[in-house]
Amino acid sequence: MAEHRSMQRAALLDAARSLLSEGGTEALTFPALAERTGLARSSVYEYFRSRAAVVEELCEVDFPVWAAEVSSAMAAAEGPEGKVEAYVRRQLALVGDRRHRAVVAISAGELDAGAREKIRAAHGGLVTMIGEALAALGHTEPRLAAMLLQGVVDAAVRRIELGAAEDPAAITEAAVAMALRGVRG
Fold first, then answer.
1. Under a CB-based contact definition with an 8 Å cutoff, are residues 7 and 28 in contact?
2. If pLDDT is split at 50, 70 and 90, which confidence band does 133 have?
3. CA torsion angle for 123, 33, 162, 62 (degrees, to 10)?
């Protein structure tokens, strides 16, 4: 029974990722989740009490995977500038990933305070991840520098997600150049 519930929950989360990446937060409804998974709508409520609960669980499940990919790219890079470049490039490379698209979609949505706090905490983990490289580059306030660097990444993500006139590769190169010039400070 527990395995069946776990599989149903995973199917609901996968359906939520698809709905969010296809249509944003408006597409994430319990009737749509029920339709995608073949469950009765009332059964969806047995797994999640609200849309915000779905969002919170997506963040808990998907964000660590995303962060691990960024961390792995940074670990493979040489020197602090290489780590900064890997930090920016890997995040921007993940933009097309369904997990990332879902997190971006839900970040923009109407969420309760708990869901917003989980997203903030997850992003805080990314900021902490780059702090050591920024300190090695001589930043006296590496956390502040990391937050500003993440702002550059977030702006580039939004440009790519919006389907800006620029090619995603050009956006990535511009973000990397800005980040590297900025962290040299």
1. no
2. very high
3. 30
